[in-house]
Amino acid sequence: MSKLPHLGTSIFTIMSQLANEYQAINLSQGFPNFPVDARLKALVSKWAKKEIHQYLPMAGFPPLLDKIAKLTQNSYQRKVNPATEVLVTAGATEGIFAAIQALVYKDDEVIILDPSYDSYEAAILLCGAKPVRVPLKDDFTPNWDAITEAMNGKTRMIVTNNPHNPTGKIWTSTDFIQLENLLDLYPNVILLSDEVYEYITFENKHISANQRQKLWERSVIVSSFGKSFHITGWKIGYLIAPESLMIEIKKVHQFLVFSVNSLAQYAINDYIDLVEVSELGSFYQQKRDFFRTLMQETKFELFRCEGTYFQVASYANFSDENDLDFAKRLVTDYGVATIPLSPFYGEGKDVKCLRFCFAKDDDTLIKATERLLKL
User: Fold this and answer.
1) Strand-strand pairing, 310-314 and 336-337
2) I need a labelling partner for 106 at 20 to 30 A (CA). Which of 42, 176, 303, 314 fits?
3) What is the DSSP string of 243-254?
4) What keywords would UniProt list here (predicted)?
5) What is the pLDDT of residues 60-100, one digit of tens each?
6) What is the mean pLDDT of residues 142-171?
């Protein structure tokens, strides 16, 4: 008997496998295909030759915890205690899972804003809790009336994702005021703020829960070195939370992974001093603009992309197919893999949209759009 009977293979795995089968250009799964910074690879090579291959402390390499605290202060003007309020995790997904397992109880309710990343619901269900899926508005901004209506005495947590995967939207200060006002009414509700794309924003900078002092004592904030430094396969991220919540999260973390890859932590600890994260947005903005210019010649209608390395596009003006069938046909007939949005919704809502990952080299983006022009 399955604990997760309705969950199967993720759409990310399905589309990447299909891309491999048909030798399609893969704009589906969210990983860059360009080289990692040579300086980071050199650091890995240097540390691999040293005797640093045993367990590190459960919470993380202490110098790296200090660097994360410094990065948080520089980026958001928030001072955190590296010894008690920071945790290095085996990717953001492990951090999310550990936080939910530690802080959510049987029969609690957790609000998820759809479309949403698929790892949230599984962690909630494994707690014996109830995921409450609240759709965003048609423009993918928070529907505060619907969120307010969903809140009640059983609500334990609300999960937010900003910048947002899959839509590329970012929250405004008004959204945070609405959230703070709502949480004032429910003092036991915890905010799980998924901010893995925090440094990939464009015209308007991302507002972090780290910048909202009113939220500090009730927020778990999720970050990702994998996303920020183009090293998704390293599976390394971190959490920031008040000590009262972090104590409980660490209890779960120690029995999930105990400690995170030592070589990666040593290398990243050095690399943080060499890289300027504030420049990451302009790097990806060039890719976004290049891809959008290419896509203007296709039949797709492009939504605004404010952050992340994803572009959502509608095909509703030229096809009535459901999004999964349409996405599969793009692979088999045109050789381009994307992600349909319906799996990001609890009820599989079909909004006739696809998600394209533009974290690719220019040649890949050019070849993909040349194929899409044939539609």
Assistant:
1) unpaired
2) 176
3) HHHHHHHHHHHH
4) Aminotransferase, Pyridoxal phosphate, Transferase
5) 999 999 999 999 999 999 999 999 999 999 999 999 999 99
6) 98
Q: Which residues pair with 237 in a beta bridge?
A: 89, 224
Strand 190-194 relative to strand 339-340, pairing? unpaired
Q: In the chain, which residues fall in CATH 3.40.640.10?
A: 39-271
- Residue 152 token pair: 């009640």
Strands 155-161 and 109-114: parallel
The answer to whether 319 touches 333, Cβ cutoff 8 Å, is no
CA distance 137 to 360: 29
Q: Which residues contact 69 (CB under 8 A, 6 or more apart)?
A: 79, 80, 81, 82, 85, 86
140: left (phi over 0), alpha (psi -120 to 50) or beta: left
Count of beta carbons in the 10 Å neighbourhood of residue 262: 15
CA distances 261 to 60, 68, 90, 118, 129, Å, are 9, 16, 8, 25, 31
Residues 282-319 have pLDDT tens digits of: 999 999 999 999 999 999 999 999 999 999 999 999 99
Query: What dotted CATH number matches 39-271?
Result: 3.40.640.10
Return d(Cα 201, Cα 209) in angstroms, integer: 15
Question: Which numeric CATH code is attached to 11-30+278-372?
Answer: 3.90.1150.10
Strand bridging mode 86-89 / 109-114: unpaired
